Amino acid sequence: MEEVEGISDGDYGISMHILSQLNEDDVSTKWEENLLKQIPTLDIAPKTVVIHTLDEVKMLDKKSDPVKSWSPLLVGFTCLKYIYSMALTAFCIVMVMACIFTKSTIVAESPYNIHPVCTFFIFWFLIFWLAIIEGGQGALVGLQATEKDLYRDSHKITILNTNLIHKGDNLERFIIGRQFLNVVVIFLINMCGKALENADPLNLPKEFNLVFLKNGAAMIIVTIVLGQLTSQVNAAVSMLDFINNYFMTFTSYVSLFIEFSGLLHSVYLFQTFFFQSQWKAY
């Protein structure tokens, strides 16, 4: 029997061919085991990525994004959606601002008689506050499982907010108070921008005024896009940065105070009732 030379690490395919040709009766078990040890194994086990810093998290997110191949039709349709969505939002903002400065809103009439300039600043302050309320809740809930030591030095105000809300049952209290605050802010926004019955600030056809002013479509789009959805999307991808401000701290304390007032404590009774109902169902 011819002697088979040792197989190098790069000759995996040749080694498998040799093994298939050898007669098992002529080859000793020991020689076969030695030969198999020389055949390189295929390392297909997934590699574990250990993340130590926030910068590594950001780099991992960038590397994990798949490369998308966009067809011209899909690109054109996507651009069309961005264009008409931006045009609709801009049109709604113009209509609401026109109502405010032509004194065609509820607060411009008796008994409020608020000056349009004051109404303008109050309106946009409330939109900003609504954005903080909406995005802040998502960020605080999402950061529950994140180790605080990872951002203790880089986001000092964020650690202040998370230490406050994640302590004991404060997150539950914050959610309850925040929901009441959210409804109040939206109510005030609606008062500042809601048009009067026969308002026509831009001299548009009646159909436009009916849809966007009388039925409130303009206020709905402005409130949802600028006050809610934009902040929620930003907070979902930038939780640490979104609540790294003292206005979020102020909002947290206001929400906790609302819950502390007992105004909404009946929610705990309903919570217990629904929990017991679900438990009995199973």
Report Rg: 32 Å
Q: What distance lies between the first and last C-alpha atoms, to the nearest angstrom?
A: 73 Å
Number of helices: 12
Please, what is the average pLDDT?
83
How much of the sequence lies in strands comes to: under 5%
Structural class: mainly alpha
Please count the beta strands (DSSP E, at least 2 residues each): 0
Low-confidence stretches: 1-20, 42-52, 60-65
Question: Order of helices and strands, N to C?
Answer: HHHHHHHHHHHH
- How much helix, percentage-wise, in residues? 55-70%
The shape, in one word, is globular
> Main sheet?
none
Would you write up a description of this structure?
- The chain is an all-alpha fold.
- The protein has a domain of 193 residues.
- The protein is 66% helix and 0% strand.
- Helix 4 packs across helix 9 and helix 6 packs parallel to helix 11.
- The N terminus is likely disordered.
Structural descriptors:
282 residues, mainly alpha, 66% helix, globular, disordered N terminus
